[in-house]
Prior knowledge:
Blueprint: H1 2-20, E1 23-27, E2 37-42, H2 49-55, E3 62-67, H3 74-82, E4 85-88, H4 101-113, E5 117-120, H5 138-149, E6 155-164, E7 173-178, E8 182-183, H6 185-190, H7 193-211, H8 221-230, H9 238-247, H10 262-271, H11 273-283, H12 292-319, H13 321-341
Parallel strand pairs: 1-7, 2-5, 2-6, 3-4, 3-5
Antiparallel strand pairs: 6-7, 6-8
Helix pairs in contact: 4-5, 10-13, 11-12, 12-13
Amino acid sequence: MxxxxxxxxxxxxxxxxxxYSKKIKVNGLKNIPTxxxxxxxxxxxxxxxxxxxxxxxxxRTNHFLVRAAVFKKPLIKKFLSTLNLMPIYxxxxxIKELEKNKAIFNDCFEIFKREETxxxxxxxxxxxxxTIRPLSKGFTRIVxxxxxxxxxxxxTIIPVGITYQNTTNYPSKVAxxxxxxxxxxxxxEKDELTTAIIKIKNSVSAQLKKLTVHIANDEDYAYKLExxxxxxxxxxxxxxxxxxxxxxxxxxxxxxxxxxxxxLYFILILNNLIPFLIWKQVSKKIDEVEFIxxxxxxxxxxxxxxxxxxxxxxxxxxxxxxxxxxYTILSLSIILxxxxxxxxxxxxxx
Length: 350
């Protein structure tokens, strides 16, 4: 029953993300084993929408470690647990709370024992800067702890790079790149624990820097990012952009693409006025730029279907089912047309 529930939510989210995103590029699916324990390790540029994009474009059923703050309310905690989400506690949650991670880690050990998959974000927090930050060693406690408890277990690590054209504007292109499999067991077999931790962190980090656009976090970061923005580059062409950075061949400035679909945008807003007004109110309370996309998607995924359903029902009552059906198709076509056709804003927000 839980598997059916998970599948239905995955279909719901995948459908909504299709209408929400201009384009979703997925590469490296062949690198994901169809069986066996897997730890997916992804960079984290864009709040809670990151795991949604990854898991809806992943053939395996995933479990997730999410920051504990999301689980404060009992009803939300119960709902999220049905979708395979588990809380992970950090120092900012309080020293006493860190003790709860022991039980969570044990749950992770059992997930691997069942040869299932786990998705984590080893940078430890979200940040929209286009750079791979130092990885925390928390994931090594999970991996090596599971191998210590179950010596015959094999755990494959798959680095995942997720790259957005822009993390705050709608619609946006997204690229999801699955890296080469890393057998975690091989690190413990060759080295002592401390050395194994350093080597496995370096191995994952090196892949992440190739799987997403990585601009070194130094004094030239802002300058390089500005040149890429002015050059109107497509950040989802990850290999191309990283090669430009590596060869120091940054592009020259280009004119900003003009939005020729303003009329379509106004029609879209008028036809979804109440969801739009709800979003405007919600957006005033967002204090982290990385959560703009998450909350906008949540509002659209919940409010737009409800609002269109109510409008369709009213039209059907007054004008008949045929007209109501035509209205629904037209409304969905307007959303899809604007999402897929409007030029994306290449300017990065960080």
